[in-house]
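Ticket #4471: structure output looks truncated?

Reporter: J.K.
Steps to reproduce: submitted the chain below (234 residues) through the standard prediction queue, then opened the result file.
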Amino acid sequence: MNDKVFAKPIKKQFEFDEEVAAVFDDMLSRSVPFYEESQEMTRFFVLKALQNGGIMYDLGCSTASLLISIAKQNPDVTLIGLDNSEAMLEQAGKKAHAFNVDINLLNADILEYDYEKANVFVSNYTLQFIRPLVREELVKKIADALKKEGVFIFSEKVISHHAKLNKDLIEHYYDFKKKQGYSEFEIAQKREALENVLVPYSEEENIKMAKNAGFSHCEVVFRWANFATFIAIK
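Returned output as attached by the reporter:
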């Protein structure tokens, strides 16, 4: 289904409800620049980390596209997707059934969940929705749950602390969205809905957060304007 969520006036903040879940895959492909390319890179690193088996967690797994693609390429690993949106998990379950893959989908709070020792954690545009006061606590919890040399791959919107550059990056991104068929009204509506819900960090702040949490190394492996994919190694 095509994303038309913000084609009408909104009266609430953004949330991952039934309406969003139904069009989420289309929303991602048209709202996140080079989404498929960043996901292909994520799959590469995940499969490398799981080549001898192991456990992977996808935090905020949404409709489980990444987990399904991993399961199709390596069915002999334990894949666990966590999300607190029942609507997203319902869509994920339907897709997993259609592709006949074995993945574990759980309605859970990623801040409170009791993680097993794992080889890989992935978080695609999820940390930015976690309140800054507890975001670093979550990243530390992830680091603690990873095995030695385990990896945490996360993608985030990022900001620049240079005011003019940040403004220009946002303008460039909105131009991208217009080319994907979104109207100025839809762009403005979504921006308003995400106000105070999505709180991005800069590239440097994300790297510092990972290192403070216990990762030995963290760097950007993919970036387009104000979207970045990071890999952190324990």
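Triage note (M.O.): checked the attachment and the full token line is present. Strands lie at 55-59, 78-83, 104-107, 118-124, 146-159, 201-202, 217-224, 227-233.
Status: closed, working as intended.
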